[in-house]
Amino acid sequence: MSGQRLAGRKALVTGGARGIGADLAAALAKAGAAVMIGDVLAEEGRATAATIAQNGGTCGFVALDVTSDAQWDKAVATTVAELGGYDILVNNAGIEIAAPLIDVSAEDLKRMFDINVVGVALGMKHAFRAMRPGGAAGRGGAVVNISSVAATIAFPAIAGYSASKSAVDRMTRIGAVEAGKLGYGVRVNCVYPGLIANAMGINLANEIVKFGLAPDVEAAVAMVLAQTPLGRLCEQRNVADAVVFLCSDEASCITGAGLPVDGGMGT
Question: Quick one: pLDDT at residue 34?
Fold first, then answer.
């Protein structure tokens, strides 16, 4: 996906310091948006922002713990002040802690839900307040929440993560209804990435082996491929392309939707 289809837009990407979030931030910048990376990883976040700027994009960094209302206030204010507006939120920050249900930890569940669910809810709250008429930005916009194929399939050892990403799916649809009916001018959609061979994906494959659900990493990956019609893993750039599309005018009549980027795994 190329071209300046997001020229003039101002975006905040949570969890944008590394991994899929860094690719999302870079893709938005390449499409013409000015981007603010929000993350708890300050050194990595600033480095990612600098790399995007070196490649011709406009990108800054703001410290953001997505579970904190106060930090959301500051991140949104910083985005509006430094970028000159706020039109796009990509709620990407999230964590995955794998465990069979027989070994699940209350602390791990609470941590996942704090980041994956509370973080997304607060992100939508502050985006709506800033983007709606009379808000700090006030021009409407687009919110894209990063859910997961885990919200649509039953895969072992990720019950808590799957539950949190299912919550993201439901909140996306409710957010779209509220934003529409209350006249905010904000579209809200989500993306369901499949398993990607990044740090999170590789860690899950290793955990599957550790839990005795597969003899080795190759077999763990084969479990995924056996459920994937395309017969291959998707890449971070595939998710980035989907997010750019959902933020663009080409998706101007799309809200309350979930877009799978999983090779058909959730079919």
Answer: 98
DSSP letter (8 states) at residue 265: T
214: which 2 tokens? 């597969």
Please, what is the average pLDDT of the chain?
96
The 10s digit of each residue's pLDDT in 135-194 is 999 999 999 999 999 999 999 999 999 999 999 999 999 999 999 999 999 999 999 999
What sections of the chain are H helices per DSSP?
19-30, 42-54, 69-83, 106-113, 119-131, 159-181, 199-210, 217-226, 236-247
236, two tokens: 């971070």
Q: Check whether residue 102 and residue 211 sit in a common domain.
A: no
* 188 phi/psi in degrees, rounded to 5: -130, 120
User: Which is the catalytic residue, given 86, 161, 184, 192?
Assistant: 161
**88 lies in a domain?**
yes
> What does the alpha-carbon distance between residue 117 and residue 114 come to, in Å, rounded to a whole number?
6
Q: Are residues 40 and 170 in the same domain?
A: yes
- Residue 30's SS3 state is helix
The residue segments making up the domain with residue 139 are: 10-194+235-261
The question of whether 192 is a catalytic residue gets the answer: no
**Do residues 256 and 201 share a domain?**
no
Task: Kindly tell me if the per-residue pLDDT of 129 is higher than 50.
Answer: yes
Torsion of CA 254, 256, 259, 265, to 10 degrees: -150
Does residue 119 sit within a domain? yes
SS3 61: strand
